[in-house]
């Protein structure tokens, strides 16, 4: 900041400092920029969210045993579309969700505070570009303090970044949905989470899973948001009118998707704490290795960053049959929607396959033309040896080269193509 301060003009200027948080760090930054009086303008928490016409907030009453079934049924039935931020209350919960979604063939990426800063920034950039549809995150470090792990702990984990906080301060673009898989612990955290969608003039949807023990926190959120309307500012936490005025109940019948409930219960039973810990450590090791090895390379080859993806599967035993949704599992009210959606998916796949086939064909033609120009001729007289024949037979490129040489020899011996020679006699024409 001292270097930036040197570029400021010496004459009196007006400085505007904007921050998502106003703490002691912000105050010290303010004093280093400009001494004297400052005017502080702070936006209240209840005014962080846009109006109901732009942001729609839903709630689903779901206990812990039903959350996973509801989530995977909404994803596979195409009820959730667009870029989606899924919030949980811990990193372990995020990795459990990632392993769960992988079993159903749904790719997702975890924004982990234990990963290098460069990896996290690159993940957010790729999410903003549309490479990932589902980003799993947590706001457990929002307070900025990180408890030190026990020194003699058997399962000591990598140190988390104290400045990490996904629910605020990160510029997510074009987020269509925010899904609170775990309801936030405070009303302020809810506001910061949901504030990731419906930004600028974009429309957005917020969906929260609420169980019986979290209803009091839901009332706190409703009371905070109702302070924008003076007529409802005196609502008590026991009164449900505040909740009904802010949140809409999401019409979802779990009885219609029993097939998903059985599938989800079977998959969740296989995701143990040991498996979550192994997957978490595996990703940390891989990302640390990539960050250390490729930092210098990507500085010179920035275009190759596109090929580096962070949604690689952590599980080695995915179940292929869980990717498909049989017709009997689709509720009658959604069958027409699923047919249209599946048709669009098939059309996109057909278009991609056709383009991919064209690209492969063009690449092969280009490769063949370059190889013909640079290839060394094979002595056909050596083909009489059995060892030479067997060695060449194992190499398809050599076989193709010999065929081309024989074709050229046959073409040269053909009188129709032997210019300057008489037909049949091989003598030069007069």
UniProtKB/TrEMBL annotation:
One Gene Ontology cellular component annotation held by this UniProt entry: cytosol
EC number(s) reported in the record: 3.6.4.13
Basic and acidic residues composition-biased segments: 344-378
Broad EC category: hydrolase
Catalytic activity: ATP + H2O = ADP + phosphate + H(+)
Pfam families: Helicase_C
InterPro entries: DEAD_box_RNA_helicase (IPR050079), Helicase_C-like (IPR001650), P-loop_NTPase (IPR027417)
Residue ranges of domain Helicase C-terminal in the record: 54-241
Name of the protein this chain belongs to: RNA helicase
Organism lineage string: Eukaryota, Metazoa, Spiralia, Lophotrochozoa, Platyhelminthes
